Prior knowledge:
heterodimer, A: 594 residues, alpha/beta, FAD/NAD(P)-binding domain, 25 strands, B: 351 residues, Rossmann fold, two-stranded antiparallel sheet, 12 helices
Amino acid sequence: MEPTNIFDPNYFHKVVDCQWACPAHTPVPEYIRLIAQERYTEAYMLNWDSNVFPGVLGRTCDRPCEPACRRVRTEETPVAICRLKRVAADNKGDVSAFMPQVPAKKNGKKIALIGAGPASLAVARDLLPLGYEVHLFEQDEKGGGFMRSQIPAFRLPEEVLDEEVDRILDMGVHCHFGQEITSMKAMMDMNFDAYFVGTGAPRGRDLELKGREEVDKHIHIGIDWLSSVAFGHITEMKGKVIVMGGGNTAMDCCRTSLRLGAESVSVVVRSAFEVMKASEWEKEDAMREGIPIINNRPPKEFVHKDGKLQGVLFECVTPVKGEDGRLRYEPSGEPDVFIEADHVLMAIGQDNHCPWIERDLGIEFDKWDCPTLNELTLQTTNPKVFFGGDSAFGPENIIWASAHAHRAAISIHLFCHGQDLVADRPPEGVNLISTKMGVHEWAYDAQYDDASRHLVPLVEEKSALTNIRVEVELGFDQALAEKEAQRCLNCDVQTVFTENLCIECDACVDICPMDCISFVANEDETQLRQQLTAPADNTEQDIYVSDVLPTTRVMVKDEDVCLHCGLCAERCPTNAWDMQRSIVHVPQLGSYAE
Amino acid sequence: MTFVAKPKVHHPKLPVNELGLTRRDYEGSVSTLCAGCGHDSVSAAIVQACAELSLPPHRFAKVSGIGCSSKTPSYFLNKSHGFNSVHGRMPSVMTGSNLANRDLIGVGVSGDGDSASIGFGQFAHIVRRRINMLYLVDNNGTYGLTKGQFSATNDKGSTSKKGIPNLYEPIDLVSSALQIGASFVARSFSGDKKQLVPLIKAALSHKGMAFIDVISPCVAFNNHSGSTKSYEFVRDHIHNVMDADLIMAHDEVTADYAEGSREDVTMPDGSTLQLYKVDADYDPHDRVGALNYVQRMQEKGEVVTGLLYVDPDAVECHDIMDTVSQPLNELTEADLCPGSDTLDALNQRYR
Lengths: 594, 351
């Protein structure tokens, strides 16, 4: 194998599994260290810079970082990254002094942002400090988009959302709220320099089924219903409720129903439990509140009498694993199951829907009603128009919206200055800084902590279930956060090897608790992976190969289960190993690009 | 010296041996030797060898004297019996231990000062008595613990860290061991575990006195350009004559050697010692030949390594002395006081 190029910005970035998995590439280990040092404000700002909504995300993020966490591979449970993020938000001090300055003198460019959800808000945040005049159009009276309309208050208190939304609006956004946007053409006639569409995926799917028409008033589209609850139009839910669907919206629907007084709530899912779209923890939360999740039951018929819904008839199927590893469903032979219900909430997915965008504006759409976009620049076929968030590629989550926003903001900036959206994009980069402080001192807490993941304290169940505004998770307190922070392996402190210093004494090989390091004859990658002290079977993780050493061997380090404990560097007599903090520069307006 | 302790967590796919133990279960406490010390590699090799042989850690008696080398038994086989004795007196304690309990696996670790200077007499006599043990010397040619004076194994002309040459002839422990009666003699290098681990495994399976001289560089005082025991010098002058590997009954033979260069020796425990001739003219069963060869190469400045001599049928001390077959602590009162009839019978023989 060729020697590894550690100056490729992606090489060490990939080693920081959480940061790599995060769409916005938030520097997770760095903010966890700050939390461990009780520097909550700095931890918050680091998050805010990268993902814009730390308080919201600390409660509601889909957490792509957690399944990626290296601890999943070294023990089992990941660091509670999301909850630690919340600790930073809960304990921060006054952040106003750290906010970017918005110039009084504008740069003469006017940008329209359509839809006041996380994507548009984050674009506004990126553009305002550069002197753009930003206009935000939204049909609701308040900003926040689906963070406000679809995430129930018991998961995300309104004040937390208001704080982070208002922080951006207060930077000088021109808000045009409470007016339904009915025509893109009318927007384009207003002659903005660029348009950003962040209107989400607003159409909840319905189910055409026998009896559907007759009981229309008992059947509700999940996201619309949640929105009515959020805005106070619906305040109670009487009788028996069936929630159909296995995603996070279904979990929010069932838990909300319970709080609005439903006599009984059950979630019925067409597919198997393991393949449900809902996050593991959201399923757990629902089940902890006593809500049964019934799997492998596709609906067959809405049963009604005298125009009143009686319940739903479900078929029984069994999942069978096909040769491609995917589940297929076959009739199980059991008789159909009837479940009584007074209301049915449909949470079976949502789609993009832009009827308000005229199709003669040069903005092309595909057959799923998604715009044709350049994936990097998020520009549509009309060069002035950009998309981001759920409206770009279909339903995702808040953290993807932030990530899209940073990319779109760069594109808008380049576009407004007549630059090329691809060639002139700011590059990615990586800095490496030694953490060596003394003979046995490192600028990070190297020692491995074998503690198991700490559980988050919850509010007492009775008050949780009777008031929709009571937040269920209390969050970690500072002491618990400090303990959980110690579990982080500091994967951004990299093991950097310098060939010409190595005397091949084997000290690193002997001390490495995870058998990551080997000195072997060079081969091609497949063979090399099998010849190491411990075979490097996880091909998703890179192996770090040195140049040829005096004995003609090469040093090979499997990044897979490295604890970043620094023992190789501690034991190295010649400093051929050093622990260096990698700082990945993800292009972002205002942060690094300028 | 390392302040961050090695955590207990290990690679998720770390193999488990026949006793259900991983290699990590054979480790000791964290080493306090200098970072990069060859001795730590030797300890790691012992750990690996014992784990691969599935030997029960609690059946070991590890004995040492004084010096950097003699600290190392703390750093391997945590759950075994150990005795850190007086300078140069490892052989006395080991002899006693072995005579009292012949079932324990004896591992004596010593250094060049401990065995070639203050304990040279003890070394000679335990070899001569052929105690059934592994006698392993971490040989770095220097008194590291007292800041780098020449030891008795330091080659004439080799210099100190400050450039002053050594004026005296070296003691070659391999030659001494060959001459005095060791039935297994090998030399290896701490920086070559591929050779060292199989040698340790073979030595542990050998019945009788097994001696391994391991060149183990002292990174603090004897790893410089004037040294003949530095990583660089040893790598440049190493001359391997005979690879050895111990094949357990269920092991698969994977090594690929030229036809006729392999010899299988059945060991007392049923395993097979495989010898691979790297130097075609070398005969590992010729004691005098080995002695000549080692000394001739030494004259040329070459470091001969590998399994240099083995006599699998040699007798050991218990055979020579015709001792009782069980460990002394297993003898019952009936064994020790067989009664007045036996005493009478015995006395009759002296009438």
